[in-house]
Amino acid sequence: MRYKRLGKTDMNVSVVTVGTWAIGGAGWGDVDRNESIKAIRAMLDNGVNFIDTAPVYGRGYSEEVVGDAISGLKRDDFYIATKVGLTWQGEDDPIVRNNGRENIFREIDLSLKRLKTDYVDLYIVHWPDFKTDPAETMGALTDLVKAGKIRNIGVSNYDEQMILDAEKYGVVGAIQPPYSMVNRSAEKLMKFCKERDIGTMTYGSLGAGILTGAIRELPNWDPSDTRLNFYDYFKEPKFSKIQQLLKVMDKIAEAHNAPVAQVTVNWSTQNPIVDTALMGVRNPREADENCAATAWELSAEEIDTLNKAIDQYLGEA
């Protein structure tokens, strides 16, 4: 496993982070709780030391699974990131954005209880709510740092100006933008953050599974499936364009006697603007396969070939 410092924090994180959106279950098809726990443990056994989750993933379910997976382990051996701001009242109530002080203080206690821990290493504002003043949000988060419930503050889905506004009232340790071969829209933002020594942890790193090479035909998923509604990879014309990119990836994977997913992992983690890339895993096999990618690296020539193919089939970022 390779490791990088996460921005200005004191966190030396594995270049691969356990992503747990899918194991939250809602909108991701069938998910087995025991297999999810085994998958997280397998990632840790492979040298991964960072787990990312959020209360909104299955309305608390993902955090509970993570809590079960880390139960009995030495807490200082790994980092946990969770999020705040996507909230609900009753089980059937809609999810709303709320980055207000009262809600932040309410959510952190609920998350810590589900995770069975006293603190989280990175607490991420999941989405801007456009109603709460950044002074209120950052003030509440800074108070949680002082209280020892969180160690660092992060933001997700923020643009440059939002980050600058937040930094007026506290320290932003890391961002979490979407980033992969099939979505490079955040590259400018990530370079901006690197210049400010703000850590970068990317989500959607496997392109919701399409960059593993496992999906070669348009899927016939339930219309409510998150992969169909949150991403545009499984719709034409983008789907066919990605299939052309996969043919290039196939050749590189074959040269290394490795699965396509490992080409994807290395393309992300070898990028200097990426500190760590979230990888969703549902079982130990997927965990072992993704982590094995860090045992080898793409050559500069191979990275150049991939980047040219991305530009050819998907356009420049």
UniProtKB/TrEMBL annotation:
Q: Where on the tree of life does the source sit, at the highest rank?
A: Bacteria
The record, for InterPro entries, names: AKR (IPR020471), AKR_Detox_Biosynth (IPR050523), Aldo/ket_reductase_CS (IPR018170), NAD(P)_OxRdtase_dom_sf (IPR036812), NADP_OxRdtase_dom (IPR023210)
Q: Which terms are listed as keywords in the entry?
A: Oxidoreductase
Q: Gene3D superfamilies, alphabetically? A: NADP-dependent oxidoreductase domain
Gene Ontology cellular component terms for the protein in this record = cytosol
Annotated NADP-dependent oxidoreductase domain ranges read 17-310
Q: Name one GO molecular function term.
A: oxidoreductase activity
Q: Which SUPFAM superfamilies match?
A: NAD(P)-linked oxidoreductase (SSF51430)
Q: Show the PROSITE patterns listed in the entry.
A: ALDOKETO_REDUCTASE_2 (PS00062)
Protein name as it appears in the record: Aldo/keto reductase
User: Origin organism of this chain?
Assistant: Luoshenia tenuis
